[in-house]
Design a protein that fits this description.
The complex is a heterodimer of chains A (about 290) and B (about 475). Chain A is an alpha/beta fold and about 290 residues long. In chain A, about 35% of the residues lie in helices and about 20% in strands. Chain A is built from 10 helices and 10 strands. In chain A, strands 6-7-8-3-9-10 form a 6-stranded mixed beta sheet, with helices on both faces. In chain A, strands 2-1-4-5 form a 4-stranded antiparallel beta sheet. The longest helix of chain A has 15 residues. By secondary structure, chain B is of the alpha/beta class. Chain B folds into 2 domains: about 300 residues, no CATH class; about 55 residues, no CATH class. Helix content of chain B is about 30%, strand content about 30%. In chain B, strands 5-7-10-12-15-18-20-22 form an 8-stranded parallel beta sheet. Chain B has a 6-stranded parallel β-barrel with strand order 11-13-16-19-17-14. In chain B, helix 2 packs antiparallel against helix 3. The chains are: A alpha/beta (about 290), B alpha/beta (about 475). At the A-B interface, helix 2 and helix 3 of A face helix 11, helix 12 and helix 13 of B. The complex binds adenosine-5'-triphosphate and magnesium ion. The site of magnesium ion has 4 residues of chain A, from helix 1.
Chain lengths: ~290, ~475
């Protein structure tokens, strides 16, 4: 393990609105540069919560645990700083920003990403005329990546995710990833909502982006995606914990058998919570797990 | 930490305008003699003096409006109603405080214009620019000059249209303006002429004071086309607590007029403006109107659709911060068949600021086939801020298609997080959401104005976030 790996240690996370109600109950995971890890797991098991916690969503609180990356205590940094360090999250449900064009959004994001942790005060990432990427270079970069993802250029003048179809939103997430060149990418169900051809195009696009410098965490329900993007490791997240890890065959096995046998092996049939988290009554602790396991 | 907006307005208070020497200045307070003196100074024809006096009488008789904003703090007896700037006034750019220069810089205003806006250099380059612009315009028969000069040089045309759109009896502040008006623009575009570039008012107002009672008259003849732009994003310094302007636009059949306003008054000004247009058959009138700054703005750009097939559009933006009230809106009065109107209003309230949308949509009996829409969106940036909507709708013709939509919203945490996850700071993320909210307005501006306007809003937002 190097300090360049993403290292998650015993991470406990709860919603800020219900801080005694842990969703993640101790996650341990390490993703090295150049590695692809897949996370699978039943609905409501905490996959998106993990992605949000890693990105720094203010609606979640870290109850305990640590996340280290690139020599930083990641949990101490705001979301924008994590992004400028090279962390990227492709959202399961990308947000619409009415009135903000895709082009200005991408330009602002590229400028922010490139400014790193010590931004030049003369550059305003949100102002096209105050430094940052030159217009010509920007156009060239976006065109190139749109071609890679077989996207129509007309999307550049549309407003971010406004009126986009499910598949278009996912593709725009991938376009962002392509231009931002992250060092750690979390893809939260990027495959959901894509048609068969789009899935292939996006997966090939992601494959083209893979490089020895970037770690990838792919959250998915379907083994199909993993036919294109071959994971080094597959993890099963259930009831807020990683209950199994293995090679690519684990995904195949899940596809075949569903989650029940693996959850059973992990002792997670209908009831969990052998150790209630601090401050929570056993009932509270068990509630989300019950939901997840059924 | 003092915000840049505060710095600007407080600097302006003891800014660089304090030592201006006024050659001909009326005393504070408004009397019949003041009105007569103004007319005499200007060597006006008798009819204008009579008009001013008629307006003065109405101003006295008319009570303060009790609706809208709080006008009780205005002391009409303390206001100086006319001043003519001294000729030899010379001030140096070096005297302008650094902070002001910085604000201009941040707004990205070109050097030459900065000097002008800061009130230095009476023989500012704008005069040169203006002269060459005017020469070009006169080749195609377009008149673009000060309203006082228009009265002198085009007496018949002037008299034919002046006060036909906004009579002095319209409201108390229109009466006040009619009695003491000075400055403003006079524009005439002849039949069939399309003015290729926007007419920019601030190149014209050279040594003139930013008129507190300016009066603008724009006549666009049949089939002609023009875009007039008033103001800029730089904070407007004024020693006057009251700005009461009147703007009249006459769009003759088949013409097209767009009137764009961006103004940023310092935070102690009452900005009470009557803007109205007559749209004749198959003409198009568009008001593009932004209101930032001021203590209270009451302004409702109106369009009277008088001829069949006329089209009206009003897109307005209001930003109210601490201690500010923007009481703004739009009116579309459909007097003829097959006329169309579209009103879009966007407002932002922050730091306890207050915005009010006050609009009127009227369709008279017999004006069949009208299509009208009103959309008001308010964004509240914090709990203490406030926004109200009063859309008066009076439709007296069954054959009307009308839609009305109003929303009040907040910036969502999820939108901000989404942008932050792409590397933008919380402030930058909020700014982008706000920019998007205002895009329907901004995209109507010429590019350099759009950039400046976005920067202005950004500065205002920093005031609330910083
Ligand atoms: N902000 C929140 N407030 C309250 N409960 C929350 C919050 N966020 C998530 N939860 C709950 O935590 C659990 C895990 O949610 P999460 O979105 O992480 O699941 P997921 O594994 O991504 O599911 P899916 O496969 O359906 O996307 C769910 O029961 C969800 O309802
Ligand atoms: Mg999820």
């Amino acid at each position: 393990m190097s300090d360049q790996d993403l290292i998650i240690r015993d991470l406990h996370v709860a919603p800020a609105a219900k801080p005694d109600h842990e969703i993640l109950k101790g996650i341990d995971l390490a993703v090295g540069r150049g590695e692809v890890h897949a996370i699978m797991g039943p609905n409501g098991s905490g996959k998106t919560t993990l992605a949000y916690a890693l990105m720094g969503h203010p609606a979640y609180v870290i109850k305990s645990g640590k996340v280290l990356w690139k020599g930083h205590d990641l949990l101490k940094l705001s979301a924008d700083k994590r992004a400028r360090l090279g962390m990227f999250l492709a959202f399961q449900y990308p947000m619409a920003i009415p009135g903000l064009s895709v082009a200005s959004f991408l330009r602002s994001a590229i400028n922010a990403r490139r400014s790193g942790l010590n931004p030049d005060p003369a550059v305003d990432p949100t102002d096209a005329f105050k430094g940052g990427i030159p217009m010509g270079e920007f156009r060239k970069l976006v065109r190139e990546k749109m071609t890679l993802l077989k996207m129509d250029e007309s999307i550049a003048s549309r407003y971010v995710n406004e009126g986009f179809s499910g598949g278009e939103k996912k593709r725009l997430e991938m376009l962002q990833m392509a231009v931002l060149e992250p060092e750690m990418a979390i893809l939260d169900e990027t495959d959901s909502g894509l048609d068969i051809d789009a899935l292939r195009i996006v997966a090939e696009g992601v494959n083209a982006m893979l490089n020895p410098n970037m770690g990838v965490l792919v959250i998915t329900h379907y083994q199909r995606l993993l036919n294109y993007i071959t994971p080094d490791t597959v993890h099963v997240l259930a009831a807020g914990r990683i209950v199994a890890s293995g090679g690519k065959d684990l995904a195949l096995r899940l596809e075949d058998e569903g989650y029940a046998p693996i959850l059973a092996e992990a002792g997670l049939e209908g009831e969990v919570g052998d150790e209630a988290p601090d401050g929570a009554t056993p009932n509270e602790a068990a509630a989300p797990a019950m939901e997840a396991a059924h | 930490m003092a915000t840049s907006r505060e710095l600007v307005s407080s600097e302006y208070k003891f800014g660089f305008h304090d030592e201006v020497d006024y050659l001909e200045e009326t005393k504070a307070g408004l009397t019949r003699e003041t009105v007569e003196a103004i007319s005499r100074f200007k060597r006006e024809p008798q009819w204008m003096l009579d008009f001013r006096l008629r307006a003065y009488e109405h101003f006295l008789a008319r009570p303060m409006p009790m609706w809208g904003g709080d006008l009780m703090q205005i002391d009409l007896n303390k206001i100086v109603y006319y001043r003519k700037p001294s000729e030899g006034e010379e001030k140096s750019w070096d005297d302008v405080p650094d902070k002001i220069k910085k604000t201009f810089e941040r707004l990205g205003i070109p050097e030459a214009e900065r000097k002008f806006l800061a009130g230095v250099g009476a023989q500012y380059d704008s005069e040169v620019v203006y002269h060459s612009v005017r020469e070009e315009l006169s080749k195609i028969g377009v008149v673009f000059m000060g309203t006082d000069q228009g009265l002198k040089e085009y007496p018949e045309l002037f008299r034919k249209y002046f006060a036909t759109v906004v009579p002095p009896e319209d409201n108390k502040f229109a009466a006040l303006n009619s009695a003491v008006w000075s400055g403003g623009s006079f524009v005439y575009v002849p039949k069939g002429v399309e003015v290729p570039l926007p007419l920019q008012a601030y190149f014209r107002i050279n040594a003139e004071n930013t008129g507190q009672f300016e009066r603008t008259l724009i006549i666009v003849d049949e089939g002609a086309k023009v875009h007039y732009i008033e103001g800029c994003t730089a904070p407007i310094y004024t020693t006057d607590a009251l700005h009461a302007a009147v703007v009249e636009v006459i769009a003759l059949p088949g013409s097209k007029v767009r009137y764009t306003t961006i103004q940023n008054w310092s935070n102690d000004v009452y900005n009470l403006v009557t803007k109205r247009a007559h749209a004749h058959a198959h003409s198009t009138v568009e008001w593009i109107d932004a209101n930032t700054g001021s203590r209270l703005t009451m302004k409702y750009p109106s369009i009277y659709l008088r001829g069949e097939g006329a089209t009206a559009e009003v897109i307005s933006v209001a930003v109210a911060g601490k201690g500010q009230h923007q009481d703004t809106g739009a009116k579309a009065i459909h007097l003829a068949p097959n006329t169309r109107s579209r009103i879009i209003s966007k407002s932002i309230s922050k730091d306890g600021g207050r915005t009010t949308y006050r609009g009127q949509l009227k369709v008279v009996p017999g004006a069949t086939g009208v299509v009208a829409s009103v959309r008001c969106d308010a964004l509240l940036l914090d709990e203490g801020s406030r926004s109200d909507t009063y859309p008066y709708i009076d439709i007296q013709e069954d054959d009307t298609t009308m839609t009305h939509e109003a929303t009040v919203g907040k910036i969502s945490q999820d939108q901000v997080f989404y942008l932050m996850s792409r590397g933008l700071t919380e402030n930058e993320a909020t700014n982008l959401v706000v920019q998007g909210f205002l895009e329907v307005f901004t995209k109507e501006l010429p590019m350099e104005y759009a950039i400046e306007f976005n920067r202005l809003v950004k500065l205002e937002m920093e005031g609330s976030l910083g």
